[in-house]
Amino acid sequence: MMRGHGVPQEHYFARETHSSPQLIPVRTRLRGIETHLVSAHGVFSHRGLDRGTELLVAAMEVGAEDTVLDLGCGYGAVAVAAARLAIRGWVVASDVSMRAVELCRMNLAAQPSSRTLVLQADGYTAFRPGSFDVIVTNPPIRAGWRVVFPLIDGAPEMLRPGGTFFAVGRARQGIDTLVRRIEGAFGNCEVIRRGSGYKVVRARRG
Ligand SMILES: C[S@@+](CC[C@H](N)C(=O)[O-])C[C@H]1O[C@@H](n2cnc3c(N)ncnc32)[C@H](O)[C@@H]1O
């Protein structure tokens, strides 16, 4: 696996994995609720919840009736937290990695809401414009801006009018570049939470 800033890591472009992964238990708290998830090698932050994800989950605003997209879901911590909030809505989770999709399905299966859909997709290619009230993402910054910018630029069109976009990024990975891109796409972007060198931002479609 190649490492380094701006260099794609295996989990960012492994669309298909052929071996059956050994499941790794992840015990965490999502918005104060003790939560048991499963993870596996080859997915982002497989040993435990990423600090950025934790902050994103804590800060995201999801209504009971909302249709939410967890874009780049990994093993699905954001989707699980969203499914507990959007109790009469829908949670859609997507990732380019099939292993991530399978793990996210397992983790969502344990949630009370059955209104969930997990699919393998590159960016927004599987979705129709205006499908979501909320899009939440911990974007694959290490994969490079060439991968991340389309996820930002495509977001306003995928949201219903008044819909919101939440993202997290780390200062040393270029959160300010991310913020500028979101401002360019939405015409607004607000930092709503900070911690451990991360910022969670929110933008609204007018
Ligand atoms: C930083 S990880 C976040 C994973 C998970 N949301 C979390 O917070 O633990 C970014 C995820 O985006 C996925 N990804 C990369 N490029 C993508 C693309 N073009 N479309 C959808 N997902 C993508 C990666 O496979 C990875 O799971």
How would you summarize this macromolecular structure in one to three sentences?
The chain is α/β, with parallel strands linked by helices and 206 residues long.
Could you give the topology of this structure?
Elements: H1 10-13, E1 24-30, E2 33-39, H2 51-59, E3 67-71, H3 77-85, E4 90-95, H4 98-109, E5 116-120, E6 132-137, H5 145-153, H6 155-158, E7 159-170, H7 175-186, E8 190-195, E9 198-204
Parallel strand pairs: 3-4, 3-6, 4-5, 6-7
Antiparallel strand pairs: 1-2, 7-9, 8-9
The chain binds S-adenosylmethionine (SAM).
Question: In words, what does this structure look like?
Answer:
By secondary structure, the chain is α/β, with parallel strands linked by helices. The protein is built from seven helices and nine strands. The strands form two sheets. Strands 5-4-3-6-7-9-8 form a seven-stranded mixed β-sheet, with helices on both faces. The chain has a two-stranded antiparallel sheet with strand order 1-2. A hairpin with a 2-residue loop joins strand 1 and strand 2 (33-39). The longest helix has 12 residues, at 98-109. Residues 11-12, 44-45, 50, 53, 72-74, 77-78, 94-97, 100, 122-123, 138, 140, 143, 147 line the site of S-adenosylmethionine (SAM).
Report the portion of residues in β strands: 25-35%
Quickly count the domains: 1
Shape: globular
Number of helices: 7
